[in-house]
């Protein structure tokens, strides 16, 4: 059993991660999974959860938490009229299909494999955040199908494998085609809903009957951790929305990029 002091420390870390995740959900239109997954991975290690399911449980629980967080963030952004409803409607099928594809991969890949996937995508996301330039463009109009559908599927796949809400990926896609950053952020909150809900059920299916899971888990979702984090993220997410419409986010992008590269290094080190 872990020491009481260690449990208190990680309880504080969970609370802090929940607050940061909620803030990021509103600020960048992301679910905060990039913050939550590394924290959960350390927590489950402290609790001596089997390494074979530790990373899967971290990703699945993160997606469960993103469900209410992304819904609340999306509703707050939609109230401001900033959401690209047309893009969301066109992704009602491709994004969830990508997420279910991720669940199929998660059901068969090892913990080390899932950590490697997370690390590689985190490197790409971190570099993108550090090097992002508003003037970079691939066009002035979002592409139509089949390109749009393929992009939606990829966003769902990569996000499902990382346990994130897809905001960074969608922000990149929309801004590269000339969408205002605030519109991209607002729409990303809706993309998070399309990712988190099927991701929740996908990771329940992927982990159904798996051994080594802690109590109060359904598949790769641990409801105790989810219940502790969700209230914090719900309270903080609207604050992030207000910041998103008031702040220059470049410094925050740099900080988030550095964090992602640090997380990637941590997971790559664990594979050595």
UniProtKB/TrEMBL annotation:
InterPro entries given in the database record: TM_pro_TauE-like
Main location: membrane
Entry annotated with the keyword Transmembrane: yes
Domain of life of the native organism: Bacteria
Subcellular location: Cell membrane; Membrane
Keyword Transmembrane: yes
Membrane topology: Multi-pass membrane protein
Keyword line: Cell membrane, Membrane, Transmembrane, Transmembrane helix
Residues spanning the membrane: 12-41, 53-71, 91-109, 114-131, 151-173, 185-208, 220-240, 252-269
Family assignment from sequence similarity: Belongs to the 4-toluene sulfonate uptake permease (TSUP) (TC 2.A.102) family.
Annotated protein name in UniProt: Probable membrane transporter protein
Organism: Hoeflea alexandrii
Source lineage: Bacteria, Pseudomonadati, Pseudomonadota, Alphaproteobacteria, Hyphomicrobiales
């Amino acid at each position: 059993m872990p020491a009481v002091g260690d449990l208190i420390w990680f309880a504080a870390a969970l609370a802090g991660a929940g607050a940061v995740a909620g803030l990021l959900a509103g600020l960048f239109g992301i679910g905060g999974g990039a913050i939550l997954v590394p924290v959960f991975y350390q927590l489950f290690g402290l609790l001596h959860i089997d390494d074979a399911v530790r990373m899967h449980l971290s990703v699945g629980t993160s997606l469960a938490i993103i469900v209410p967080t992304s819904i609340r963030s999306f509703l707050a952004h939609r109230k401001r009229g900033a959401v690209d409803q047309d893009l969301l409607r066109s992704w009602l099928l491709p994004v969830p299909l990508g997420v279910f594809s991720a669940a199929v991969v998660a059901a068969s890949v090892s913990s080390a494999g899932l950590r490697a996937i997370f690390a590689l995508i985190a490197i790409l996301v971190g570099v993108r955040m550090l090097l992002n330039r508003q003037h970079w463009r691939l066009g002035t109009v979002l592409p139509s199908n089949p390109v749009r559908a393929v992009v939606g599927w990829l966003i769902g796949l990569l996000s499902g494998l990382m346990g994130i809400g897809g905001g960074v990926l969608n922000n990149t896609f929309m801004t590269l085609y000339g969408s205002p950053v605030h519109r991209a952020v607002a729409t990303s909150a809706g993309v998070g809903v399309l990712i988190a809900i099927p991701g929740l059920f996908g990771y329940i299916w992927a982990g159904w009957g798996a051994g080594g899971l802690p109590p109060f888990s359904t598949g790769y979702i641990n409801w105790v951790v989810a219940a502790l984090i969700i209230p914090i993220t719900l309270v903080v997410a609207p604050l992030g929305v207000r910041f998103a419409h008031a702040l220059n986010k470049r410094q925050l992008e740099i900080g988030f990029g550095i964090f992602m590269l640090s997380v990637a290094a941590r997971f790559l080190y664990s594979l050595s």
